[in-house]
Specification:
The chain is mainly alpha-helical and 475 residues long. It has a domain of 318 residues: Hydantoin permease, CATH 1.10.4160.10. Helix 5 runs parallel beside helix 12, helix 11 runs parallel beside helix 13 and helix 17 packs antiparallel against helix 19. It starts with a helix and ends in a 7-residue tail after the last helix.
């Protein structure tokens, strides 16, 4: 017999024995964290959100901004600061909600989408985390180990996948501890690498086209936003164990600061590396570390592999959380762990397939992430604006609660923004065809459309839900 998440609200005893244990499988899945199991402080969030971005996928955003979007170094940095800054602002606001409610981010999404309607964004997130980002980061880690130790990328992929799946399988506390230990070590290695890159770079070199390209600039903004904002559906997952008495501002600040600083610095390093010149390579990590002395190159390759594990430990954990939130009935005590193992297998197969052409679709993937994140944030923030009272936990786990205005707003924002403003190799939006200088602003248009639609379509439903589920203390 299986138990539903609602049962865990009445009997949270399983989480009480978990506390701050590190080498223990986290009990349960997406149920609320009881007060007695809360622990930690906001400062640790800086390392939690620094470590997963100290990886090659972050560097590669800077690489494509110069190599593919045709920007100069300083143009690329300006675009990435804007994209990362917008993503960090969203991350600040969502992270700050975790301690108050004690539930994962995708569960909080049920406020705006309803219990059933929330299945769609939860599905997007599960696929993005458990398959998309998992495969992307696993490939870079596999290439790094292959270059470092001389074995085939497939062997490196097996090592990477086993390590990161084990972290996610055990759960929240081990993931948090690993991020905090790995972050300072990775930071030192990447800082050394950054000094070498900048000492050899020509940051004053003009753009490839010889001037400023608005289309390329907006593409870089969209890609960096897709990378940074891609973490926002995870935000409350890593703050929900904090006591509800912690400062929301500190919680949001340390989480968003770790995200913004790590993303911006490493993306700038990637952009600078493209101004050095040299021979290209089918192995992107090999091409990047070719600029370093052998010892530093080996340390950087090892750091890239560890960074991939740090990123994917979070990806698999939150992907499993989103999968569970879709409503599948699994034993409460093992649901998240079982799904983590499942994503490890599926993600390995996709990454294995992607080894043959690792960098070809990275730009497209980042923009695809941004396409759904934009409208999702629009709906979530519009709901937060309308809903002035904290939700009752019973509402978040009630299958009868619906908010189809949120679902409709998300779909409208997503479909319209993609049809009009998408800029992909296989499909170019109708507006972008006429005005190529727009680059790709689909995510931002989707945010505005979804936000506006929700204020119109869901206002009455929000008012009704507040009356039907009167405000009370969350725990």
């Amino acid at each position: 017999m299986t138990a539903s998440p609602a049962d865990a609200i009445k009997d949270p005893a399983a989480a009480l024995g978990y506390g701050d244990k590190v080498l223990a499988v986290e009990p349960g899945g997406n149920e609320p964290i009881p007060l007695a199991a809360r622990h930690g402080n906001p400062r640790g969030l800086f390392w939690t959100w620094t470590a997963p971005n100290l990886e090659f996928a972050t560097i590669f955003v800077g690489v494509i901004s110069v190599a593919y979007f045709g920007l100069s170094f300083w143009q690329a940095v300006a675009a990435m600061v804007i994209g990362n800054g917008l993503g960090a602002i969203a991350h600040f606001l969502l992270s700050a909600q975790g301690p108050l409610h004690g539930v994962p981010q995708m569960v909080l999404g049920r406020l705006a989408f309803g219990y059933r309607g929330n299945i769609l964004p939860a599905t997007f997130m599960a696929i993005m985390c458990g398959v998309g980002w998992f495969a992307t980061n696993s490939v870079s880690g596999a290439f790094a180990l292959s270059t470092l130790f001389g074995f085939t990328p497939v062997i490196g992929l097996v090592i990477i996948v086993v390590a990161q799946t084990a972290f996610a399988f055990l759960g929240h506390n081990l993931v948090q501890r690993f991020e905090r230990i790995a972050a300072p070590i990775l930071a030192v290695v990447f800082i050394i690498g950054a000094v070498i890159i900048f000492s050899k770079s020509h940051v004053s070199a003009p753009a490839a086209e010889g001037g400023f390209s608005l289309g390329g600039f907006l593409l870089a903004v969209g890609a960096s936003f897709g990378y940074a904002a891609g973490w926002t559906p995870y935000a409350a997952d890593y703050t929900r164990y904090l006591p509800p008495t912690v400062s929301p501002r500190q919680t949001g600040f340390f989480a968003s600061a770790g995200l913004f600083v790590s993303c911006t610095v490493l993306m700038a390093v990637g952009a600078a590396s493209m101004t050095i010149g040299g021979e290209s390579s089918d192995n992107p990590t090999d091409a990047f570390t070719a600029h370093f002395p052998s010892v530093i190159a080996d340390l950087t390759l090892l750091a890239i592999a560890v960074g991939a594990i740090a990123a994917n430990a979070i990806n698999v954990y939150s992907g499993a959380m989103a999968f569970v939130t879709m409503g599948f009935r699994l034993p409460i005590g093992a649901q998240r762990a079982l799904v983590s193992a499942f994503f490890g297998v599926v993600g390995f197969l996709v990454a294995w397939w992607a080894l043959a052409d690792a960098a070809a679709s990275y730009e497209a993937f980042l923009l695809l992430v941004a396409y759904w994140i934009g409208p999702w944030l629009g709906v979530v923030f519009a709901d937060h604006l309308l809903r002035r009272e904290p939700p009752v936990l019973r509402m978040l786990y009630d299958p009868k609660y619906n908010n189809w205005g949120g679902f409709a707003s998300f779909v409208i924002g997503l479909v319209v923004s993609v049809l009009l403003f998408c800029n992909q190799e296989r499909f170019v939006g109708y507006v972008v065809r006429a005005v190529p200088e727009l680059g790709d602003i689909g995510a931002f248009v989707g945010f505005l459309i979804a936000f506006g639609c929700y204020l119109v379509l869901a206002r009455r439903r929000v008012e009704e839900s507040v009356q039907h589920y009167p405000a009370a203390t969350p725990h």
